[in-house]
Write a structure and sequence with these properties.
The protein has about 325 residues and is α/β, with parallel strands linked by helices. It has four helices and twelve strands; from the N terminus they run ααββββββββββαββα. The protein has helices at about 1-25, 30-110, 245-250, 280-285, and strands at about 130-135, 135-140, 145-150, 160, 165-170, 175-180, 190-200, 210-220, 225-235, 245, 255, 270-275.
């Protein structure tokens, strides 16, 4: 800017000098030589000023272009930041929507946990017909002709059954799983069940924190209720119970009274799986109750044969 002001001052001074000199030109032929010298001086001055003016003009043009580029870059940065702000707002909206959806789903699916009171003489069902589950119940699995002692966990969504030697295979073009429900270290019951999906479970004990488990569907019976439920396959021999019952299993037909245990009567079966830490229960499991026939389920689909149930559908 100082350079621009300097050359503007020089240009004005030069112009004034030319004007003054033009006005003071001597008159007549005698002054021709002086006039010629004056004009030559003016031409030299112009030749000196014009390159500087041209350079100054180019500098001004370059400065304008630089300022324009900087302004454009600043505008682009502002637009980019605004775009990010909109994206963040959309993400926040999606998170809030998902949170609300999860809260609604949890509220809808969480079964009742109550201190039960019933007018039924055996106090195993509510007046509206829903069964009462204690903290621990016997679950009859028709596909294995087995009654398993399991813990009711309303904090878990999906149920889980103890499984070893898990093997995937195809039957009639569909995916099935063959696995063994372990009674103890050396004995177990082999079961085949259709695959439903693969469930991703977050586990604190797992180094990666995530565990993928196959999920199969099997027929069960508890008390007077028979149905089908999904079970993820996991070796539970290091845990207390061979089966864990989640809220998806009991929703719509049962409530939970955690102050009680074994509210529902155990279904007699060929195989009895008590908890893995109960020595007496393990002896009972080893006996396999050969003399006891399993009670058929209400829908007539419970398998009571001496071999694991195999489905062809």
């Amino acid at each position: 800017m100082l350079r621009i002001k300097k050359w503007m001052s020089m240009s004005i001074a030069s112009g004034l000098m030319l004007f003054t000199m033009g006005c003071q030109l001597p008159a007549g032929k005698a002054a021709a030589a002086d006039s010629s010298a004056t004009l030559n001086e003016i031409a030299r001055t112009q030749n000196q000023i014009l390159p500087e003016l041209t350079a100054l003009k180019e500098e001004i043009s370059a400065l304008k272009e630089s300022q324009t580029s900087e302004i454009q870059a600043l505008n682009n940065k502002i637009d980019h930041q605004n775009s990010h702000s909109r994206e963040l707002q959309n993400i926040n909206n999606s998170i809030n929507s998902l949170r609300n959806s999860l809260n609604s789903s949890a509220n809808a699916k969480t079964p009742e946990v109550v201190k039960t009171m019933s007018n039924n003489s055996d106090n195993t069902a509510m007046n509206d017909g829903k069964l009462i589950f204690g903290e621990v119940e016997w679950i009859y699995i028709a596909d294995a002709d087995s009654s398993l002692e399991g813990r009711i966990d309303t904090g878990a969504s999906i149920s889980s059954i103890s499984a070893k030697n898990v093997e995937r295979f195809e039957r009639d073009g569909k995916t099935w799983y063959r696995f063994t429900i372990p009674m103890n270290d050396s004995e177990g019951v082999t079961v085949e069940a259709p695959w439903v999906r693969t469930s991703t479970i977050r586990q604190v004990s797992n180094q990666s924190g995530i565990e993928d488990r196959p999920v199969v569907k099997m027929t069960f019976k508890v008390g007077s209720h028979t149905g089908k439920a999904e079970f993820s396959l996991k070796d539970r021999t290091t845990m207390v119970y061979p089966i864990l019952i989640g809220r998806e299993f009991i929703k719509d037909f049962a409530v939970v009274d955690v102050s009680r245990k074994h509210v529902q009567k155990r279904i007699d079966a060929k195989n009895i799986f008590s908890n893995y830490q109960d020595t007496k229960g393990n002896r009972l499991a080893k006996e396999k109750k050969e003399d006891i026939q399993a009670k058929p389920a209400d829908n007539g689909k419970v398998n009571t044969s001496s071999t694991p149930a195999k489905k062809n559908q």
